[in-house]
Amino acid sequence: MASPARLIPNDFAHSILDLACHIQSIPAPTFNETQRGNYFLEQFRALGLLDIERDSTGNVLARLPGTGSAKDGSGNARTRPLVISAHMDTVHPLETPLGVRWLDDRIIGPGVGDNALGLAAVLGLARLLKEKQERLPGDLWLVINVGEEGLGDLRGIQAIVNRFGAGPLAYLVIEGMGLGTILHRGLGVERYRITVQTPGGHSWVDYGRPSAIHELCSLVTRLAALPLPQHPCTSLNVGIMHGGTSINTIAARAWMELDLRSEDSGTLARLVKQVQINVQSLQQPNVRVTMERIGRRLAGSLPPTHPLVVLSRDVLSDLGLEARLDIASTDANLPLRRGYPSVCVGITQGNHAHSPDEYILTEPVALGMAQIFLLVTRAWQRLG
Question: Cα–Cα distances in Å, from 25 out to 3, 96, 106, 149, 336?
């Protein structure tokens, strides 16, 4: 069994937590990640990494060269690279009060686990490899990407996968929470904006005319009543609703954003069809309903026997942790869908993600850092 204390001293683990708290204090809502990206550009330069850049999508990249970085006769690196990434965007809007609270065993604050700690772990890994003078067999590309949350629709990791393709040994995706879980399957997601438009009018003079808000609420009630299977696990959620002009106006326009998920692509497609049928049933001469897709995450997976999954399990076992294989919607969806090896792993345990009371446990961070250190240093031997 590997000793986390030998790999990750307590003071280093504490520095990762301090780093996570600093990153958390830099606002980075989806589509507004520039300030946080600037911080990582500075940090990568301070570490002396190579090929540092911000790409056209807003991702920040840097390369830690390996011993196999030299080119062959065709101009290709002799040894395949490894990509490790963490998303920098958060669900919390710019006006959200940031800052954290330290308690005995945890840190509380919006976005501290999703994904400030994941970002701190990627930067901390680069520092650790430098300090230990660990020369990897191949290049390690460190990626701080945009657009993982919400309507970012995985645009950041899509640009990365478009760039590197099948070249890397694997794509390792790091989240702050979820230590002990190996996400080797990507959950299918479909997202839609449904808009209702009516003539509107005065709440008294024109009473009886259809209201866009009333019609939209009727649709939500119908959708919430749809029977959803537990196997495969499937969900439906209305996350946002907007509409209306004033309390005494019959609403002329209202819209909502709908999130649909399922472990099975066929089940998800059938759920989308049910939603479409219900949307069409609302159409009337004075009621116009439109349904626009605003996001999509296609499913993909690695078998439990794949060398990357086996390596991930072995690392957790060596650290005294029992691995749990699972499915979720993360940046790993994109490479998995294209058939490239990818897993998503976490640095500690926590809860209440996407809420002001989000928290992470402090003690397991040393284990989480030891996990990604071992994953990276063993990757070429096990996957090459």
Answer: 32, 11, 17, 18, 32
